[in-house]
Amino acid sequence: MAIGIPLNRLDLTDAQRDQVKSVMDSHQTELRPLGEKAMTARRALERAVTSDTVDEGTIRARAADLAAFESDVAVVRARVHADVLQILTPAQRSTLKELQAEREKRAETPRPPRR
Q1: Mean pLDDT for the stretch of residues 43-60
Q2: Terminal-residue alpha carbon distance, the chain
């Protein structure tokens, strides 16, 4: 699961790695069923979008179903993120803020069109 923390760039100790793994494992029982339901909802939306006829009501309903599951996943991801932050030292949190700022800046930089 992606939680938005580049753990490999924060020089975690072995103990911290174990704690992060424990946090991730503890949330898998929540995330796995949500991920499966979101995948099913995504497929249903794709079938509605690529149907021979345009049924706006069905498309909107399938999109709403998918959005509900994605919202649930986002909440669990936020909980994992918060739990992992508690494991980091102040210096690691500071490094993380710098890395996140760099990532946001890159995301704002327009990319040239692909050929």
Answers
A1: 95
A2: 32
Is the pLDDT at 1 greater than 60? The verdict is: no
Q: For the whole prediction, is pTM greater than 0.90? A: no
Q: What is the CA radius of gyration of the chain?
A: 19
4 backbone φψ class: left, alpha, beta (φ>0; ψ -120 to 50) = left
Q: Which long-range contacts (CB under 8 A, 24 or more apart) does 69-72 make?
A: 69/34, 69/37, 69/38, 69/41, 70/38, 72/34
Average pLDDT over residues 28-50: 90
For residue 66, what are the CA distances in angstroms to 43, 52, 54, 72, 73? 9, 21, 18, 10, 11
Residue labelled with tokens 């020089």:
11
In contact, 113 and 37? CB cutoff 8 Å: no
